[in-house]
Amino acid sequence: MKKSEVRSQKSGGIPKNQRFFGAEDSGTVHEKLKGFRGWQASIVVCILLLTAYCLLPSTASAHRVNVYAYAEDGKVFVEGYFVDGTKAMNSLVEVFDAGTGQKLLEGKTNKEGLFSFRIPRLTALRLVLTASMGHKNDYIISREEVAEALGQSGVNSQEAEVRSQTGLAESSKQRTGQNDEVAAERVVVSSKEIEQVVTKVLDRKLQSIKNILLKMQQEASRPGMTEIIGGIGYIMGIMGIVLYFKSRRNT
Q1: Could you read off the pLDDT of 18-60 as tens digits, one per residue?
Q2: Is the pLDDT of residue 61 over 50?
Q3: What sign does the CA torsion over 209, 215, 218, 222 have?
Q4: What share of the chain is helix, strand, coil (3-state, %, to 5)?
Q5: Which is more confident, 225 or 140?
Q6: Following DSSP, what letter does each residue of 91-133 receive, concatenated?
Q7: Domain architecture of the chain: domains with CATH
Q8: C-beta of residue 61 within 8 angstroms of C-beta of residue 94
Q9: CA-CA distance, 32 to 235, in Å (whole number)?
Q10: Angle formed by the axes of helices 225-250 and 26-62, to 10°?
Q11: Model-level pTM?
Q12: How far apart, in whole angstroms, are the C-alpha atoms of residue 145 and residue 123?
């Protein structure tokens, strides 16, 4: 007796698909198999989406590039870096007139992610850094900061005036032989004026730092790739659950 006949006798001659689902017609069996496959496909899709949610945001965030710059002594100093701390080496830096949009110059960062250039004109400057894989970011230096770096902010004239007043006080002391009390009073007045000038300079320097911190805060408040992928994964997860219950209801 053949093996197939022995198996057929043991199973009572019932087809394999009917032994699994019961004594039903083949159409019902196919419908159940179809529903099961749909449910299984939904689970696979959800797993793939969760995997993408875990892997893609870290990769995208790691390649996000930042740039900041400051003006000093007639030059602008630029630095580019990625979120993970890697320096943006050999990255293109384009300098535009922030008012007219005219391109003034361009260059590339060195191995430390740094680039510097002479200020081309007295205007607000927009710096655009393009890193690898097309990642971009920009930074704007105000006209006031540029003017200060060029020595046209009026601070130099104030310092010269203070020095002139101090010199007059000293020469007056020598010529007229004023007593120490009057000379000390004039020196105190000059010190206050120097303090005011220094305070103004520090305020301008700190303003550029405040602008950098504000820009970083604004960028951090925007929805990043993590939030976007997370929202898509959340929606697809709900769709998977709906499809699961729908397939069960159909079966």
Answers
A1: 444 454 455 554 555 455 455 556 666 666 666 555 545 444 4
A2: no
A3: negative
A4: 60, 20, 20
A5: 140
A6: -EEEEEETTT--EEEEEE--TTSEEEEE--SSS-EEEEEE-GG
A7: 65-150 (2.60.40.10)
A8: no
A9: 27
A10: 170
A11: 0.48
A12: 9
* 91-121: pLDDT as tens digits: 999 999 999 999 999 999 999 999 999 999 9
Specify the residue for token string 């709900």: 238
Structure tokens at 10: 């043991």
**CB under 8 Å to 50, separation ≥6 — which residues?**
233, 237
Integer Cα distance of 89 and 113 in angstroms: 5
Question: Tokens 């805060």 label which residue?
Answer: 217
Token pair 């939904």 in the structure block, residue: 42
Take residue 225 and report the two structure tokens written for it: 């790739």
- What tokens were used for 63? 């390649």
Instruction: Please tell me the total number of residues recorded for the chain in this structure.
Output: 251
